[in-house]
Amino acid sequence: MAKTLELIFENMEGRVVRLTLESPVEPADPALISQVMDEIIAKNVFDSSGGDLVQKRGARLVERYVEDIELP
Fold this sequence. Notes:
about 70 residues, alpha+beta, three-stranded antiparallel beta sheet, 1 helix, flat, DUF2922 domain-containing protein
């Protein structure tokens, strides 16, 4: 199963922006994740079509299971 960490922000237009990181370190450290998100906002390192990232909305671990189907 593939796991990702989604960092969820709000941009200047109030729209949601998600940054996805593959293979996150577990267990997740909420304080560290919050600190990194604050730094991303403060340093303005990512662009979005709706302007700068201005606020944290949340973070979540996402687990995905994929099963290929062999066709005859």
